[in-house]
Amino acid sequence: MKIITTAILCTFILCFTNSAHAIRIKDIVTFEGVRDNQLIGYGLVVGLNGSGDSDQARIQTQSVVNMLERMGITTSVNEIKIKNVAAVMVTADLPPFAKQGNRLDVLVSSIGDAKSIAGGTLLMAPLRGADNQVYAVAQGSVLTNSFAFGGQGATAQKNHPTAGRVPNGALVERELPNTLTGKSTLNMNLNSADFTTASRIVTAINNKFKSDVAFSSDPGSVTLTIPGAYAANTVSFVAALERLEVTPDLPAKVVLNERTGTVVMGENVRISTVAITQGSLSLVIKETPQVSQPAPFSATGETKVVPRTDLKVTEDKRRLMVLQEGASIGDVVRALNLLGVTPRDLISIIQAVKSAGALQAELTII
Predict the structure, then answer these.
(1) Above 60 in pLDDT, residue 20?
(2) Highest-confidence range of 49-53, 288-292, 299-303, by mean pLDDT?
(3) CA distances (Å), 312 to each of 282, 317, 318, in order?
């Protein structure tokens, strides 16, 4: 083939590695209790150019009335009609160890029938955690990178105008408790549970500190005992752990996505002895009707359409490729590339090899 398909090329890039590289521990584990916390709140976006919630969505009207009453202005729902206000839900992620005064990005999403919140301003909206405590307050200009305009006959829209962001729009008002203070043990959770990887992490840590400070009771976590020298300096202990490098072990796995033609294979995939051939039969039927009519000035005769069919059958010549026992993923890709397979052909071949019992890997189809 003159053009190497995307799936084959991506597989070459991913698989031609002689040995796995060591990865920092901080990139494959998380410490128990050190995580983001989700925040949510309700607010109003004002200053819209007639694209806010309609009168049928009474929630924004009631919210405006309540806000005005807190400011000393008495009114009722029936006395006001507004089109420049949209009721929104505001969400954010509170990172671990965030301090008072730190700023967070917030996501603003319309919950009414507003046509667009582009160009609006989010009024002060308290953001609460799962414990119903206020941890941040959001306010600021909403950026949507979109627009929506229209009339009775036509409309124009770019991107999604009813959701946007307020960069650095929330101020942290309450801090989360420090989960590392006063602890004598720490737990690390692996991002991908694996017995071999957990064992390698334990070995690397114990070799680093010259003592049995780490042990693992399951493939998803590692328990650490803080050495006496780091009893009052947990941060330095964690920093020393995160810099250690280990080689994570991955299961043999092949992932197929027929919708996009994507094929991803792990480096541990092996093939038993198997013969593979791939060919295609092309059948082309072309109809070329011909018109038969009498000669000019003929006294008799009539015009007729004579059908004519051209039939062409083409079968590509493909070689039979034999893969020996224990062939690596590199051998597999080289052989299939010589056959000139397309992404969909590659998916069919891998499924057939798996059905034949020659693919020593887990096959996942998404």
Answers:
(1) no
(2) 49-53
(3) 8, 16, 19
